[in-house]
Write a structure and sequence with these properties.
Oligomer: heterodimer
Distance between the termini of chain B: 62 Å
Strand content of chain A: 15-25%
CATH architecture of chain B: Orthogonal Bundle
Strand order of the largest sheet of chain A: 6-7-8-3-9-10
Order of helices and strands of chain B: HHHHHHHHHHHHHH
Helix content of chain B: over 70%
Number of domains of chain B: 1
Radius of gyration of chain A: 28 Å
Strand content of chain B: under 5%
Largest sheet of chain A: 6 strands, mixed
Shape of chain A: globular
CATH class of the largest domain in chain A: Alpha Beta
Structural class of chain A: alpha/beta
CATH architecture of the largest domain in chain A: 3-Layer(aba) Sandwich
Helix content of chain A: 25-40%
Radius of gyration of chain B: 20 Å
Number of helices of chain A: 19
CATH topology of chain B: ABC transporter involved in vitamin B12 uptake, BtuC
Chain lengths: ~575, ~325
């Protein structure tokens, strides 16, 4: 570490950024010091990413100044950011799938040709002998061609490029093969490529946006080792996150944002998780999930040796067997893309099953077993098996963005009417009910869903499925991208359903939540079950290992391995 | 007979090659320009005007000057339409398909109007077209090799040279790498410090300019100066289909264009066919393209897919 440790490398003063009428950042002051790890902490929508995007040149601030090493800087594009040695690893990786890791790293770099320097080099290599003179003359004549080649930016010296990158890889201790195509890489490898890219561009300040969101505990540990290593080499690192335990573990200082405003910057060694939470949320909050013991559990849904393929024709789910019981929350853990989506969709009848059985025990008919394989999605829904899937883009499945709340609620009931015209009254009542019960903040039930914020959209989606009094409720990523308060509203909703005797299947990303919320946890790895464990007894690390361990002794090859990395 | 057929196939195929090389360059930047037929119409107008301008009254004419003037004017006219398309889709972020179709309809209309009005004035391009159909290598022998490879007009060789350069630039240079990146994932390219707007504009204008030469080539070489509206925009669609057929690689496009040219002229060289049969035979290039689409989707290889963000306009600050 240098002696400059206590000097600011970046100073942001009075930064304001608005999107239309939404204020993303308001008068934010932030300082980043040489060679430190700074966490930027805040709930979703608190403007962390927007603030950092302004350093990376993706957005330009409406008001305020940025100083790099004491001098004012205008960062108008990502190019400018690289000029000031700022590199950012975005949450959604900015990689070209079709290119090799190496090509992705060198992308956008300009080849420079300095003819004076080249001439100097030839002069120095000339040893005065006849042969040397001859070679020098040859090289002089070759110069214009070389210049033309550089001007056209020829790109075929693959080996040379990989070697120059390998230096960085070795220096910071990455483990990656740079000649592989990006679509073949796992999530954590893609992240590594992004980090190498920033370092290759000479970044001294590295911003990582939610780097741990998609990693297993083991991968997080590896990442943190690399981050510490970079700090040793004098880099400043900013980590955007909302996970408190990671903040405590890795950072030197924490900057807290709330609703676009900078609340405080504290030293990690002088604070506690509780204090940080209060600063972040702005009030004292109890972050407990009241998990009750399951009562009168009976088998509600049993899946036996289910196998199905995804849209690309690869095996997504292989020989999965489990039983969901009433009055119980079954958590499903796994790296994203391990077959969670296809598993739920095949139960809901949306994906074709290749082999295996799905049996539903109908409580209305004295738990009579019903074969779900022979029912169509509508019939399955009528039986009370409900799926609420929150995809990454939130509006992709389940809700129609341009329609208002009433119409979206009606999507589930329009076929029930018996007259020629639609019955709008009862869905409207239901929509108003949901708005009231779940405290959805919306101008009215006539507002198009896409105008609402993510949390409110998800409340409507989950609320609609719950309102039909289901017997099996499958919720996939219902808190994806939600702030703490909204997340706990949803968790409480799921718990209420469980207490009512519904068999809840919860697919989640955050292992801490899965362990706190579920009764049992099913761990998927590459589309297969690598374990069904008791959530009250298991530790996070153990789940992490299960998530990356292929069941049984066989080794993964070809299509199964592809199935894993496929998102 | 076979030699003549191949020779003519190469000649007509170059119209498709100009169009598809241009369209490939545009599509690589993530813009689906359905205005190619219209752009080729404009290129035809520009090319004919440029050639006539340099030809003057027919005295003291240098063939090189006339051809160069035709190329420059065709590129200018085509490039102008490319710029218009780029302004609408890149800066104003209009729907790409609608903009493209507007340009196609516009171009076909303007060509029709132009050709009738020059017909009234009695302007013909027959004499000037002789400079274009004349072989680049002078008098050549009657053997099959010289007939197939050496007997063409200059613009045929220009088409192949442009396609080869495009293939090398797209696959072997950083410029090509960056352009591919812009078409695959503009957000990523932007974050990597590539000037996305500049790349999109340059590729839209350059691609349209190249397609424009195709239009000029058709009237000045293939039809020997007789202007028949309605044909070139039909050929423009085949050029767009050829982009898919060639899997977005101008190198394959050279071969594909000759195949398309062969299929295109086959009906007129087959004797004893009724009108209906001839019309059915004209479908073959489209059917072949559909077949290629089926095959590439069957293999599902990532390298043979269209650019990922094709047809999607890019706006950096979108949330």
């Amino acid at each position: 570490m240098s002696e400059k440790t206590n000097e600011n490398i970046i100073k942001m003063v009075g930064i304001t950024k608005t999107f239309g009428t939404v204020i993303a950042n308001k008068d934010v002051d932030l300082e980043i010091k040489h060679g430190e790890i700074l966490s930027v902490l805040g709930e979703n929508g608190s403007g962390k990413t927007t603030l950092m995007n302004m350093l990376a040149g993706i957005y330009y601030p409406d008001k305020g100044e940025i100083y790099v090493d004491g001098a004012e800087a205008q960062i108008k594009s990502p190019m400018d950011a690289y000029k000031y040695k700022i590199g950012m690893v975005h949450q959604h990786f900015k990689l070209i799938n079709l290119f090799t890791a190496c090509d992705n790293i060198i992308l956008g770099e300009k080849l420079k040709f300095d003819s004076d320097k080249e001439k100097e080099k030839i002069k120095n290599e000339n040893d005065g002998t006849a042969k040397g003179k001859f070679l020098a003359v040859l090289k002089y004549t070759g110069l214009p061609f070389k210049k033309f080649g550089k001007y056209l930016q020829f790109n075929w010296l693959r080996k040379k490029r990989i070697n120059s990158l390998q230096e960085i890889v070795d220096k910071f201790g990455f483990k990656i093969d740079l000649s592989r195509k990006v679509y073949d890489l796992s999530v954590s490898e893609k992240q590594t490529v992004e980090i190498i890219k920033a370092l290759y561009r000479g970044a001294n300040i590295l911003i990582l946006d939610e780097p741990t969101a998609v990693l297993t505990p083991q991968e997080i540990k590896k990442l943190f080792d690399v981050v510490r290593n970079m700090k040793e080499h004098g880099k400043s690192i900013v980590i955007i996150t909302h996970k408190l335990n990671e903040v405590m573990e890795i950072s030197d200082r924490v900057a807290i944002l709330r609703k676009g405003e900078h609340i405080a910057t504290v030293k990690t060694s002088e604070t506690t998780e509780q204090e940080l939470t209060e600063l972040m949320v702005g009030e004292k909050v109890e972050l407990n999930i009241n998990r009750s013991e399951p009562v009168n559990s009976v088998n509600r849904l049993s899946v036996k040796e289910l196998t199905c393929r995804n849209r690309e024709g690869l095996y997504a789910v292989k020989n999965v067997s489990f039983t969901a019981k009433s009055g119980e929350i079954l958590g499903i853990a796994g790296i994203s893309g391990s077959g969670q989506r296809e598993l739920l969709e095949s139960i809901a009848g949306l994906t074709k099953i290749e082999s295996g059985d799905i049996v539903y025990y109908d409580p209305k008919e004295n738990d009579k077993p019903t074969d779900l394989k022979q029912k169509n999605p509508t019939q399955i829904r009528e039986l009370g098996v409900r799926l609420s899937f929150v995809p990454e883009d939130r509006l992709g499945m389940g809700l129609v963005g341009n329609m208002d709340l009433t119409d979206n609620v009606m999507l589930r009931s329009y076929s029930k009417g018996h007259s020629l015209f639609l019955d709008r009254k009862s869905p409207k009542n239901l929509a108003e009910h949901i708005v009231e019960d779940l405290s959805v903040s919306t101008p009215s039930v006539k507002t198009p869903v896409r105008r609402l914020s993510g949390g409110n959209v998800q409340k409507i989606l989950v609320g609609r499925e719950i309102s039909s009094s289901p017997t099996v409720l499958m919720a996939a990523y219902p808190v994806r991208g939600l702030d703490i308060n909204s997340s706990y509203t949803i968790f409480n909703l799921l718990n209420q359903q469980k207490e009512k005797g519904v068999a809840v299947i919860y697919v989640g990303e955050d292992l801490d939540v899965l362990i706190e919320l579920s009764d049992r946890i099913l761990v998927l790895c590459g589309g297969e079950v690598s374990g069904i464990v008791d959530a009250r007894k298991i530790k996070k690390d153990e789940i992490g290992i299960l998530m990356t361990t292929v069941p049984q002794e066989k080794v993964m090859y070809g299509e199964e391995a592809e199935g894993r990395t496929d998102e | 007979m076979v030699v003549t057929l191949i020779k003519e196939a190469i000649r007509v195929g170059m119209v498709f090659l100009y169009g598809s090389t241009g369209e490939t360059i545009i599509e690589k930047s993530g813009h689906l320009n359905l205005g190619i037929p219209g752009i080729m119409c404009f290129g035809a107008i520009g090319g004919c005007m440029g050639a006539n301008l340099a030809y003057g009254d027919g005295t003291n004419v240098s063939a090189f000057g006339v051809i160069l003037s035709a190329i420059i004017f065709a590129m200018l006219f085509g490039g102008m339409m490319g710029l218009l398309y780029g302004f609408f889709t890149i800066s104003l972020r209009c729907n790409q398909n609608v903009t493209g179709l507007v340009i196609t309809t516009f171009g076909a209309g303007v060509l029709g109007f132009w050709s009738t009005s020059i017909g009234k004035d009695g302007i013909t391009f027959f004499k000037v077209s002789l400079l274009f159909t004349e072989s680049m290598f002078g008098e050549v022998g009657n053997d099959w090799f010289s007939q197939i490879f050496l007997s063409h007009g200059t613009l045929v060789y220009v088409a192949i040279i442009i396609a080869v350069i495009a293939a090398v630039v797209l696959r072997r240079t950083r410029t090509g790498l960056s352009l591919t990146a812009v078409g695959e994932n503009p957000g990523a390219a932007d974050a990597a410090g590539i000037n996305v707007k500049k790349y999109k504009y340059v590729s839209c204008v350059l691609g349209a300019a190249i397609a424009g030469i195709g239009g000029a080539f058709y009237y000045l070489d293939c039809t020997r100066g007789s202007i028949e509206p309605g044909v070139i925009d039909a050929m423009g669609w085949l050029a767009v289909a050829l982009v898919i057929f060639s899997l977005w690689r101008p190198g394959i496009g050279i071969l594909g264009s000759i195949v398309f040219g062969f299929l295109y002229i086959l009906p007129s060289y087959t004797t004893g066919l009724g009108f209906a049969e001839k019309e059915i035979m004209k479908i073959i290039p489209y059917a072949v393209t559909a077949f290629v689409l089926i095959v590439i989707s069957f293999f599902n290889k990532k390298e043979t897919q269209p650019p990922t963000s094709l047809g999607v306009n890019y706006f950096r600050e979108e949330r």
